[in-house]
Fold this protein.
Amino acid sequence: MIPTALRGASKPWLLLLPLALFLCTFFLVPLGQVAMMSVTEPEPGFGNYAHLAGDALYLQVFLNTFLTAFGVAVGCLLLGYPLAYLMAQSSPRVAALLMLLVTMSFWTSFLVRTYAWMVLLGNNGPLTALLGFLGWDPPPHLLFTRFSSTLAMVHILIPYMVMSLYSVMKRIDPALLRAAESLGAKPWGVFRQVYLPLSAPGMVNGATLVFMICLGFYVTPVLLGSPQEQMVAGLIGTQIEEFLDFGQASAMAMVLLASTLIVLAVYHRRFGLDRLWG
Amino acid sequence: MRLLPRLIGFLVAAFIAAPLLIVVPMSFSTAPSLEFPPPGYWLGYYAAYFSDERWTQPTINSLIIAFGTMLLTMLLVTPATFAVVRHRFLGRGIANLMLTMPMAMPHIVLAIGYYSYLGDLRLTQTHIGVIIAHTALSVPVAFLILSANLKGFDRNLERAAMSLGATPLRTFWHVTLPVLRPGFAISALFAFIQSFDETVVALFISGRESETLPRKMFESIRMQADPVISVVSTLLFAAVVLAILMPVLWKAVQSRRSRSGSGSAARGNGPAITGTAPSDTNPCAPARVQLEA
């Protein structure tokens, strides 16, 4: 069936039909249901949204989420840049080894990495022991704080950043750097005025990805974060699991979705989406 | 390159590696709760994992669901990809957008949708329900990989076959499919992994009957009660390491063999990672871009 249709240029819709039907039934309709619930549960109207906008607690959670996502993006950039730079400047062999490491981290389940941070930051973990050894008495409680979830998210999302940066840095023509040098620029000047601007697209790509993923991050903040400083996704989960408040949860989900789409749209206008997915 | 930036780069590499490595000794630890360094070592929790139905059943469920997701995704995505890549038609842009849209959704948003929608259909807590949800989430990845492969396909091969008298069906079966086989394999693999790793949606819609491994892991980490989690983590990490190293080692072995003829086995002090240039953009990377967190 496929090949006959392959030739007949009039039948693309036939080929698309099964998937289109599937996505309508099992993607658009459920999504629409969330939108519906946000304005019909428990009663018709925009009460849920009004509640969201009027309650300082919800605003705090959204603000918290944006700040955390921003912090994670900056953290990934600050840590990822030196690593990507090292990879771009090293011998192919070292670069391959480092890429192998990044790829391994990338493919390891979020849950595994979250669990690893639980061990590292736990009260009986190595970091607490180290701080105690250094004379911090009593050692601070690291787990279930904003610090622990932010740190773990930086670790979990840094592969996205490194890969974005590296793919751009590798294409920077070394001749440009030599040219700047021969014209008398100091090493720092070469880096700041030539290399950094040329690697900017990678920075924007990586930061956008990390920021966007972080906005809707559920697993790690719920498991490692402070229950008092939830992020949006975690609060949505709580609304459903504990209060069965579908209306409020849906309204928050719609706002979260809108935020994500706005980030995407801004990126699309400036750079084009194709580049983001690679 | 100067020393300081180099040093920072290696420190970041250590920062990436350390948490991955720490789960391995933890899995052999005798400690009943989180404790590092471990007070002693044994294999007891491995035995516990393989003999405890509360862990083996979710593992089996996850494998079934991931396999079902892979099949359904490929069945739906393959024809659609041919349509979008090879034809210009009204609504092509919309089709393109729709096929990639599930990728931009925070999973928690869809989790609510599926929780109530599949609940109405009485599909929550069933394998089919989870397969359906995971298929919707896997479509973009499979589509992107397959369409990238299909775009690079030289249609002259098909024309040649048909001009030699092959029917379209034979052409597809004997020319198109074999050439695209790696693309198919990779997209199927991604659909599988996407489903096997997916946590948030599964957390809300897979009940006791179809509990997936990530859901069980999530609950276990949340309760902090079950040291078996370190065993599962180690096994998953080991699977990733194996899957990534295998092609690298294979390539290294092959290049060594072809370089030094038959006498190379004598030297065999393990294939190094020589000869594999860093894969520029990791082919796996962009496709995993999902707001799955």
Observations:
- The CA atoms of residues 43 and 153 of chain B lie 50 Å apart.
- The domain at 47-229 of chain B is CATH 1.10.3720.10 (MetI-like fold).
